[in-house]
Design brief:
Layout (H helix, E strand, L loop, with lengths): L1 H10 L2 H23 L20 H69 L1
Length: about 130
């Protein structure tokens, strides 16, 4: 069970991971800070009672302003998450390219080693 993990750890380009780790960490911290930041807490408005008189125009405007504030907050949070996701996807693509390059190099190395083994075997057989 441990062998696949060891193989996976050897394949990972740790130099690239270490190089991009601060960027990922900063983006994650910004995202967490925005989520922890005190947002304007709007007290939930009581549900409208259909049997009661309709709300006044001022009350409706206040509710509309509160709703717009909440929508703006959600849009900002969504934009930040999209940016973070984009950065992570870009870094993931670079990691995949590096892994692909390492696979090609490994195959070439295996072929070279096989040719050398055959060459040594031929020389020893003489």
């Amino acid at each position: 069970m441990a062998i696949p993990w060891i193989a996976a750890l050897k394949i990972i380009p740790w130099g690239d991971v270490i190089e991009h780790a601060p960027k990922v960490l900063n983006a994650a911290r910004k995202l967490l800070d925005k989520q922890k930041a005190p947002t304007v807490q709007v007290p939930p408005s009581p549900p409208m009672d259909l049997s009661a008189e309709p709300p006044s125009l001022g009350e409706l405007r206040n509710r509309l302003v509160e709703a717009r504030q909440l929508i703006d907050q959600q849009a900002a949070a969504q934009q930040q998450m999209a940016q973070t996701l984009s950065e992570l996807a870009e870094q993931n693509a670079r990691l995949v390219e590096a892994v692909q390059l390492l696979r090609v190099r490994t195959r070439v190395l295996i072929v070279v080693v096989a040719v050398l083994v055959v060459g040594v075997a031929v020389l020893l057989a003489r």
